[in-house]
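Severity: low
Component: inverse-folding endpoint
Summary: output formatting inconsistent between runs
Steps to reproduce: submit the following structure tokens with default settings.
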């Protein structure tokens, strides 16, 4: 049994339509109510509108990505109680509508970070790149976050200085805008393009974490889980936390879901099987210490959702997105481990055997250049990734069947 083929869809404003997904053979749709402001309740009628539109095309709403965890919950602000009550009600409403998996993250301020959204590959495709010295140049010399230079190795700061000194003022502003607004605004970013001073507001959000280290953020996540997981259990909903991207500290902000020890802590913090993970090969692979096969082995029964893409990791901690099959990770072994886990679930009689998988991000190629797709989410590049992953799944299934 292959993993369920899914696709991230950004709603009615997405240039890729539900009709397109139906034609591509997508089985499950991964989406959210992007028009509902963060922190507000998702009404049943709004959930059903989207669910009905998906089901009319013969697909199902497989995963919510995402039901955003507001910054007020992450920092335990005075508004936390209201935000938690709203989150709980949204979980109940999703469960009432038969939607059983929620992907979320607990990353402070930024959902993900890249320094180049138009990185040219040798084949002419366009990818996304996280250049560590360039990001440090943004943090230290453009954003001018107080004390930023002490948060990075001295050699990286020196490289960052050299990078910054070669930038024009326009290039520096464009880099800041891409990191703060462009990569965040179309998902659930705390800052959008309407803000007059995005750098100033960004610094304000970062400053809210000045007294919150890794342990405190862990405590805040545990409090969130203790409040929400019992509701999720009653509603028949599984929560799947997404790893930090990148999975190492940036901007002086704590990172708490980026390596195996973090997952071990997570499962001890709340032992419910509804407290699970989104296995994201791309995010986890950006930390060289991570053994992704070991992560799958140690988290296997809590994997509720899967993101697959590859990265090429460089010596200084930089990386770029290299497609879905080729890169620093052996995608065949990763897929093999995931399919074996799903087969184990079937053989053990587990009811929730499905492991939805989506091609995460994609290389911009061919006709993608004619359209203004969201960063990382081109049509043709992701369709190529979906086809590659589908072929890999079927090949592994054939191999496993032959071994029986």
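Observed output (run 2 of 3):
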């Amino acid at each position: 049994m292959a993993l369920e083929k899914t696709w991230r869809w950004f709603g009615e404003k997405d240039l890729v339509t539900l009709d397109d997904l139906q034609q591509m053979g997508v089985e499950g749709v991964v989406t959210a109510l992007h028009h509902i402001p963060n922190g507000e309740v998702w009404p049943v009628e709004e959930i059903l509108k989207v669910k009905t539109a998906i089901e009319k095309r013969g697909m199902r709403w497989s995963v919510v990505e995402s039901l955003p965890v507001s910054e007020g919950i992450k920092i335990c602000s005075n508004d936390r109680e209201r935000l938690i009550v709203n989150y709980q009600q949204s979980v109940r409403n999703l469960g009432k509508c038969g939607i059983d998996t929620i992907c979320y993250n607990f990353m402070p301020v930024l959902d993900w970070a890249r320094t180049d959204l138009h990185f040219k590959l040798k084949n002419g495709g366009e990818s996304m790149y996280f250049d560590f010295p360039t990001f440090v140049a943004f943090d230290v010399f453009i954003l001018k976050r107080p004390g930023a230079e002490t948060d990075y190795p001295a050699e990286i700061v020196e490289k960052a200085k050299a990078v910054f000194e070669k930038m024009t003022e326009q290039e520096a502003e464009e880099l800041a805008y891409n990191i703060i607004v462009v990569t965040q605004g179309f998902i659930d970013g705390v800052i959008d393009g309407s803000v007059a001073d995005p750098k100033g507001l960004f610094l304000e959000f970062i400053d809210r974490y000045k007294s919150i280290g890794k342990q405190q953020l862990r405590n805040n996540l545990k409090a969130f889980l203790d409040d929400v997981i019992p509701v999720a259990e009653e509603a028949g909903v599984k929560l799947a936390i997404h790893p930090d991207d990148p999975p190492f500290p940036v901007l002086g902000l704590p990172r708490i879901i980026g390596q195996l020890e973090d997952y071990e802590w997570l499962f001890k913090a709340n032992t419910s099987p509804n407290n699970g993970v989104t296995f994201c090969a791309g995010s986890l692979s950006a930390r060289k210490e991570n053994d992704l096969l070991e992560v799958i082995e140690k988290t296997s029964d809590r994997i509720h959702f899967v993101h697959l893409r590859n990265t090429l990791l460089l010596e200084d901690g930089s990386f770029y997105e290299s497609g879905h099959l080729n890169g620093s990770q052996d995608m065949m072994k990763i897929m093999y481990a995931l399919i074996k886990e799903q087969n184990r679930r079937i053989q053990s009689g587990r009811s929730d055997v499905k492991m939805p998988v989506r091609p995460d991000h994609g290389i911009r190629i061919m006709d993608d250049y004619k359209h203004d797709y969201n960063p990382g989410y081109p049509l043709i590049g992701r369709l190529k990734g979906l086809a590659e992953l589908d072929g890999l799944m079927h090949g592994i299934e054939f191999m496993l069947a032959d071994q029986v």
